[in-house]
Amino acid sequence: MAARSAAADMRFVAATEDGNKEAIVYKNRSCYHVLLALAPVLALLLSLLLLAQPRSVLASEDSANASAEAAGQRARFATELCGVSAQDTDEYKEKLRKLLTDASQFDTRWQAGWRRGDSDAMQMRSLQLNSPEEFAARVKSNCERIKWQADNLLHAHTPK
Q1: Which domain holds residue 85?
Q2: Three-state secondary structure call for residue 23
Q3: Which residues cross the membrane (predicted)?
Q4: Using one digit for the tens of pLDDT, what is the confidence trace for 42-79?
């Protein structure tokens, strides 16, 4: 009986070097088949676990992180070109941090936005040298828009 069981678990493969066949024994073949049979069940359980966290929570976190980054970018522009003081920027950042409680990466995303704001400010400085009139018009409209966006972000996330 043992010889029959061993034969059932063997396959022969021709070796490329000398043409001899060598036996390959598949140990734990039954365990392999059990795992293969359970794979769809395990996949289903994993997908259910992933779905257990509501998408609105994930969307809320992503949205809050994106808001922190956009706010950092606008704050950099406002500090550089709109005459907003560093103190006002710091106060705005702290108010926003308290409101964007879902932002898991607030500081990281704020800094990423701030760095992107550096690029925006450099482009505007270049425009200032090449076309002062267009620079003045853009700064005026951008500063008004940024002020509105900052106020809107604070009011939109104020707890009720």
Answers
A1: 55-156
A2: strand
A3: 31-52
A4: 566 555 555 555 444 445 888 889 999 999 999 999 99
